[in-house]
Amino acid sequence: LGRIPGTRRFSDRERHPDNELIPGVLIFRPESGLIYFNMDHVRDTILNRVRAEAIAPALVVLDLSAAPRVDMHSAQMLGSLADELSATGIRVQAVEARSFVRERLRSEGVDAKLGGIDRFRMVVDAVEASQKQTMSGKLP
After folding, report:
1. pTM of the predicted model, to two decimals?
2. Contact criterion met (CB below 8 Å) for 21 and 54
């Protein structure tokens, strides 16, 4: 995703190439539920994009607003993905998850690995928090 110019909103960069990239931040929004049969594709897509960056991002934002469901296996995969990225110094923040998804992530014990899960945090909140930390010289 990228920022819609002149706004605090984010949308698909493939459809809207004029959307702005945020330095040091990669934003992903799976456009379906995360279920055992698509979880490897989601994981591989995120890892491939992270690896393709010339400079590793400080933050990966997972916008879960379009995911009505996350099954047990996918929740565990997200936790493993967060561990893998964290080991390289990349933070992961899940945002805009629906109540069922938040409950699943909490029940699988991965909510903390994903930056904490609540019903209020939006993409722009995660991006702005990362930018403030970067400007203040603190590690994100």
Report:
1. 0.90
2. no
